[in-house]
Amino acid sequence: MIVWVNGSFGAGKTSACRELVELLPDSRLFEPAEVGAALRQLLPERRLAEVAGFQELPSWRRLVPEVAAALLSEVPGTLVVPMTLLREEYRDEIFGALAARGLTVHHFVLHAEETILHDGEALAAYRAAQGWLHRDARVVDTTGLTPRQVAETLAELVKDGSARCPIVRSAPTGADTVAAAVLLFDEQDRVVLVDPVYKPAWEFPGGVVERGEAPTDAAVREVAEELGLQLEPAALRLLAVDWEPATDGRRGGLRLVYDGGRLTPGQRAALRLPPDELRAWRAVTPEEAADLLPPNRHRRLTAALTARTGDAPHYLEAGTPAALGPGLRAR
Description:
The chain is an alpha/beta fold and 331 residues long. Helix content is 37%, strand content 22%. The protein has 11 helices and 13 strands. The protein has helices at residues 13-23, 32-42, 45-48, 58-74, 88-100, 120-136, 147-160, 215-227, 265-269, 286-289, 295-308; strands at residues 2-7, 27-29, 78-82, 105-111, 138-141, 177-185, 191-196, 206-208, 237-244, 253-262, 278-284, 314-317, 320-321. Strands 8-6-10-9-12-13 form a 6-stranded mixed beta sheet, with helices on both faces. A 5-stranded parallel beta sheet has the order 2-3-1-4-5, sandwiched between helices. A two-stranded antiparallel ribbon has the order 7-11. Helix 2 (32-42) packs across helix 4 and helix 4 (58-74) packs parallel to helix 5. It is elongated.
């Protein structure tokens, strides 16, 4: 189990967490900042000069869940983690990786009166993050409380489970997968994207095809599970097939993209998201999608939209049409 204690710099996270490990049985302190300090020693100065802090390093965000899981494999129990984490996409990446390893995360925010927080820059960053942070975590007002009293409050909340993050879990595996996605459109032909709680970027509705399941059946099932929308397999039209290589610990495999058609206003109003998997949905233009999707998925979307106006699906490799591979160019 992970108890992640968030909040602005100066809110008393470390002091409260040192008290908390005395109250939670079989618990120990894990400070991700030490992973950052190690990376500062290991990475060349030119790389460190490219980032404002160690949290911007993808290696830090990958190592923190790995180290946490490794520590708990050695000595099972609870890791108490005092760490300011103010970017929602970093929270999604790290907490999603912890959930994928079967680790429960209890997320707290220590909130102090602003007069206690003397660092103006840190306070501004915390204010900017409050919108998502206070929705995601259990907020504990530390004003007037000693570190021991804060720790006692946290211990009680861990016990009742009210701060537990409802994140969908998936067993990690190195095997390639087949996944099916569905593009749904509004009356302006904007495409529907969804915001997962367990990874940093937006996605298409869809998911992994289960063993023995037809991809079109998987597409229908995933849309029903994620959006509460019932589609017929025969109504789906295949737009693109993309072979995605495994990168940065993420699985690769074939990605199928289907056209699910236009949603009526009534269907859009009836969309329902599972809180343990999706945070929000949005209908966007292709240009807006470029700011929300990773580059490879945006290339996949572009190819699928092009195929939507043609007669045949497009085949891609790593988001690039196969006919435009190395040595070949569009004419």
